[in-house]
Amino acid sequence: MSETEANATEAQATDANDLPEGRLDEPRLVIEAGPAARVAAIVGPVLQGLGFRLVRAKISGGSPPTLQIMAERPDGSFGIDECETASRAISPVLDVEDPITGAYNLEMSSPGIDRPLVRCSDFQRWAGHDIKVDMAVPVGGRKRFRGILVGAKGAEAGGQEAGGQEALLRLPDAPAGAPDTVALPIADIGEARLVMTDALIREALRRDKALREGAGIDEDDIDTADIGEVPLDDEGDDLTDEEAAEADDGGGVLRVPPKKKPVRGKQKTQPLLKPKGAAKPGKKSNAKRKSHAKETH
Question: For the chain, how big is the Rg over CA atoms in Å?
Answer without folding.
Answer: 24
